[in-house]
Structure formats: structure tokens, C-alpha cells
Amino acid sequence: MHEGIRPDMVIVGKALAGGFYPVSAVLSSDEILGVLHPGDHGSTFGGNPLGCAVARTALRVLIDEHLVERSEELGAYFLGLLKTLRSPKVKEVRGIGLWIGIELHEAARPYCEALKEEGVLCKETHDRVIRIAPPLVISRDEIDWAFERIRKVIEEK
């Protein structure tokens, strides 16, 4: 949706229930999903009432607390800070919302381990990328706190 693309089908999971309960869903139009009729397709965990209730509540929180808009606003703020990093080790800083990557010219894992020691949890991915994915409820003060530690590790390591 961010890129203006409307896929025929979307499969969602993991965060659909806010991390509290395993649940996933398939989203599509009646034209596509309408080819299936009751009994055509089964699922071991399909139609779980508790999973559906948890997912519905998690989606309601996303909407009521404007977490998508918050992610866009705070992600732009965080990305702006990260783009001020000055180190020849940094190849690129990129992101959409609060889903941010710092691509390095070298292995990312030692930096992730150093950040862990500073209290910042992140993950290396594709060998050279530090993936930063804070919770949608993060505050500006917490972003500032995290940025200072990221700056310290990237610029001083």
C-alpha cells in the first residue's frame, strides 16, 4: 500500500495478534477467495475464536492509538537522526516508518552485540545490515536515547 500497489492476496501473521497469540490471516477480494466454498479447504488452527478475538483487539489498538501514523512520524524523525551518522563504515541508512536498516561496509553482528551492551536491541540481517524495529509505542525521548548509543557504537567502534 505504501508503494501504491494493491496485491491480489496478502498473507499476514506474527504481529497480527500483537505478539500475544499465534494467528495469521489471508486477505483478498471475494473474486479470488470466492473460489473456495465451505469444506473446500481446511486448517488445523483455522477459525480459532481466541486467536480471532486477540487479533481483532490488536487491530483495534492499531487504529484507536493511531500507531500506523505514529510509526510514519517517529520513523521519519529517527531516520533523520540516523542519516546524520558520520562514519565511513556506513553505506546507507534507509527505512519506512519505524522499520529501519543501517547498511554497513562490513559485518553488522559486532555492532549489534556492542549495541546490546549499550541497552539497544537490534538484529543483523543480510550480514551487513543493522535492523532497527522498535515498538510502535516508542517515544521521541526513547528514540533520542537509542540514537545516542547507536551514534556512539557506529562512530567510535
Commentary on this structure:
The strands form 2 sheets. This protein has a 4-stranded antiparallel β-sheet, covered by helices on one side. The model has no long low-confidence stretch (mean pLDDT 93). Helix 3 (67-82) packs parallel to helix 5 (140-156). The chain starts with 8 loop residues before the first strand and ends with a helix. The chain has 5 helices and 6 strands, in the order E-E-H-H-H-E-E-H-E-E-H. It is 39% helix and 18% strand. It folds into 2 domains: 9-64, no CATH class; 67-156, Aspartate Aminotransferase, domain 1, CATH 3.90.1150.10. Strand 5 (123-125) and strand 6 (129-132) form a beta hairpin. It is of the alpha+beta class.
User: Any idea what the radius of gyration is?
Assistant: 19 Å
What class, by secondary structure content? alpha+beta
Average per-residue pLDDT, rounded, comes to: 93
CATH homologous superfamily label of the largest domain: Aspartate Aminotransferase, domain 1
- Biggest sheet details: 4 strands, antiparallel
Counting copies of identical and different chains, the oligomeric state is single chain
CATH architecture label name of the largest domain = Alpha-Beta Complex
User: How many helices does DSSP assign?
Assistant: 5
> What is the fold-level CATH name, i.e. the topology of the largest domain?
Aspartate Aminotransferase, domain 1
User: Largest sheet, order of strands side by side?
Assistant: 3-4-6-5
Q: What is the global morphology?
A: elongated
Q: CATH class of the largest domain, anyone?
A: Alpha Beta
Beta-strand content: 15-25%
User: Ranges with pLDDT <50 over ≥5 residues?
Assistant: none
Amino-to-carboxy terminus distance: 38 Å
Domain count: the total is 2
Helix content: 25-40%
The counted number of beta strands is: 6
Order of helices and strands: EEHHHEEHEEH
